Structures are given as C-alpha cells and as structure tokens.
Amino acid sequence: MTWDRELFPEPVSHRPGPIINGHVIGFDGGYSREVKVGQPILMAVLAAATVSRLVVRAVLSVLRAGTGAGAGRKWKELRKGPEYLVTTMRLRATDGVLCVMEIHGHLPQSALEPRDHVQVTVRRQKDPDLPPRVERIVNLTTAQLLTPHPPNLWSHLGPALLAQAVLGLLVFGTVAACVAIT
Question: Domain containing 58: what range?
C-alpha cells in the first residue's frame, strides 16, 4: 500500500531551534513582505532632518547659490517600508522530521541545492503562526556560510537623510545650549 501525499501530506514541524541540522528538501515560491516603519521614529528623524535642511537653505540663500538640493522623498513614500523576499525552505532534520523555515532576503541561486547537508540557525518570529526565520545557514556540503540580510528601517531611510538628521540634532542642541546659557 502506498501513501497518498495529496490526501495525507507529511506533517511539518516548526522547530524553535536555535540550531537545526539536516538536508535541504526544496524551496517554495518566494513572495514579498514589507518592513514595518514605526511612525514615532520616522517623525523624529524627519524633524531633525528638516532643521538641517532649513539651516542649509538659509545659508545657501544668503550666499545666493540656490535654494537647496530638492525636496527629497515624501512622507508617504518613507512611511511605506521596503519590501524584501521571503522564501520558504523545507529541510529534513537528522532525526527524519520535515521542518519548514523562512529565509528573509536574497541568497545566491547556486548557494543551496536540494540534498545539501546544512546547519541552520533559526529564530522564532513575532507571529507564532509563521515558521521560524533563518538567521544563518552553514552549507556543510560546499563549506559556505550564508547570511540573508533583509532591509531594515535605517537602510530604508538612507545615509543622506540620517546625516541630515544628525546635523539637525547638532544644530538644535547648539541653539538649545545657547538659549540655556543666556
């Protein structure tokens, strides 16, 4: 008698980890998920960056060199977080249990092949219904260390906006200190 995989699929485990050893079975199709951007953090960064932009525009208008470098990105664009690829990986653990986990971010296409022996470090996600998230994969077959890196809030805002925010905080701190002294 054969096992009908369509009627009775093999049970899948969401192992909490932190380390799971096994062989790669395969990957399910990837989909995109959006990074959530916290409004208070975004407002603080934009307020500080606005202070520095106003100072730069004032200096440039005095020097008659122009009105600035443009408006930058809009609130709505910054509020919508960056999207990253989520790929579901199926792994047969060394004890024979089928495990499912999510890879967040991109990995080279040839980095993992079915039947590769791997050691995976996973972490639980905030949503308990989601499978654990892969933090690191050691491909023991090819001796590669793989670390997927999804985008985060700071990479989404970008170095230019963060530099403007730091400059704005310095200007605001200097003005506050001068007011406090007098």
Answer: 39-79+157-171
- AA identity, residue 25: I
Q: Which amino acid is at 129?
A: D
CA atoms within 13 A on the CB side of 2: 3
Number of domains in the chain: 2
- Give 136-140's long-range contacts (Cβ < 8 A, gap of 24+): 137/103, 137/107, 137/111, 137/112, 139/111, 139/112, 140/116
- Judge contact between 121 and 17, C-beta under 8 A: yes
CA 125 to CA 1: how far, in whole Å? 39
Strand, helix or coil for residue 57: helix
Q: Is residue 98 a contact partner of residue 13, using CB atoms and an 8 Å limit?
A: yes
Structure-derived torsion over alpha carbons of residues 155, 157, 162, 164, reported in degrees to the nearest 10? 150
Instruction: Tell me the pLDDT tens digit for each residue of 4-45.
Output: 666 666 677 776 679 999 999 988 888 888 777 777 877 777
Other CB atoms within 10 A of residue 111 CB: 14
The reply to whether 66 falls in a domain is yes
pLDDT digits (tens, 9 = 90+) for 119-157: 999 999 888 888 999 999 999 999 999 988 877 777 777
Query: For the chain, where are the E strands, in sequence order?
Result: 12-13, 19-27, 31-34, 83-93, 98-104, 117-123, 133-139, 144-146
State mean pLDDT over 50-77: 64
